[in-house]
UniProtKB/TrEMBL annotation, chains A, B:
Protein name in the entry: DNA-binding transcriptional regulator, MarR family
Keywords: DNA-binding, Transcription, Transcription regulation
The keyword Nucleus is assigned to this record: no
Domain (HTH marR-type) ranges: 32-164
Molecular function terms from GO: DNA binding; DNA-binding transcription factor activity
Lineage top rank: taxon: Bacteria
Source taxonomy: Bacteria, Pseudomonadati, Pseudomonadota, Alphaproteobacteria, Sphingomonadales
UniProt cross-references to PROSITE patterns, sorted A to Z: HTH_MARR_2
Length: 181, 181
DNA sequence: CCGATATACTTAGAATACTAAGTTACGGGA
DNA sequence: TCCCGTAACTTAGTATTCTAAGTATATCGG
């Protein structure tokens, strides 16, 4: 991380620009500098506050995530739902079991393709949107207190860019392991 | 969410500014607009990529979080460790059991205060910092690819502001429930 | 100096998520 | 037509994290 003795200042700067990191590894030893850590704390705090409100309607934070997607698109398959919500299928299976038991969803099969299961909201769950959706908006309001609209948009768009960057990398690794297989 | 027919445009704007939300509740029905959702995806993607590297040294993502803190401050108590890492104490208990079994830490008591347990890294875990810390820097590099240093700092500081806002609210609720109790 | 309160940690039990390895159903060649 | 690869979902087992409630130790007010 330090310039080799013989190298001229200019050369080192060039090399540094070309191949070294934005910050030395020690920098990230402080969690406050780590995007991963910050994202975890944002996610947990947000989630906990939201759940505090939704639990009054017997909806857990995990269930809320599935309901939100179904409010947008009712009657999609389990696989589609998993993708949209960003969870793996086994997670979805377990979550849907809970949602079905609680009377929020029903599952239906077609003869078209007997492998697929379509998920539908019950009337009760549909009605809940009116009550629960504003709770999310409220937490958002709290979370972004004191920020300008522009700052909020900047935050969202920077997070999306991070997500895209990480997804690209994950994609690369998936392709590599396909080649190996 | 729409102006009542009889209200003059100016009046509505004032009312809106005074008491309504930045966006209508429907806006957040799209997960891509939700800071909570975006933070979850950032956190999971980041964590998964990092774990892929650290697992080669038998360190899981969860364990890594504790090690990072101990690299900064060796010999602190369990409670202090929990706070710094941002986890509840039972989580720490379980994690430390794993870390102890894996030979990464030792626990020690004092006669000073026999309730406290101090956590120390083993020489092996100390050495791992040289290998593992750069992995975090590397994921950071990937995550922030194509961003200027300024953009990265903006992202970090906006996330910290969200965390502070949510913590304030949680604090408020805690005080309220203290009053009740 | 004793009892109430607070602190530090632990245990128990549950929710949420994951990976790996099934099962069942579809669909395109040989 | 039948076999093989793929797709959709399920099961099993594990890891991580939480809340609520418990134990042991320390401290402080009367």
């Amino acid at each position: 991380m330090y310039p080799p003795a013989k190298m001229a200042e200019g050369e080192w700067k060039l090399a540094k620009k070309a191949q070294s990191y934005r910050h030395p590894a020690e920098f990230y030893t402080n969690p406050e500098n780590s995007i991963g850590y910050l994202a975890r704390v944002v996610f947990r705090s947000f989630s906990r506050l939201l759940e505090r409100r939704t639990l009054a309607y017997d909806v857990s934070a995990g269930q809320w995530r599935f309901l939100r997607q179904l409010w947008r698109e009712d009657g999609i398959t389990q696989r589609e739902l998993s993708e949209r919500v960003g969870m793996r299928e086994p997670t979805t299976v377990v979550a849907l079991k809970g949602l079905e038991k609680a009377g929020f969803i029903t599952r239906r099969k077609t003869d078209d393709d007997r492998r697929k299961t379509f998920i539908f909201l019950t009337p009760h769950a549909k009605k809940l949107e009116l009550t629960l959706a504003p709770m999310n908006a409220e937490i958002h309001e709290i979370a972004t207190r004191g920020m300008t609209d522009e700052e909020v948009e900047t935050l969202q768009s920077l997070m999306r860019r991070v997500i895209d960057n990480l997804a690209d990398e994950t994609q690369k690794l998936a392709v590599l392991s396909d080649v190996k297989a």
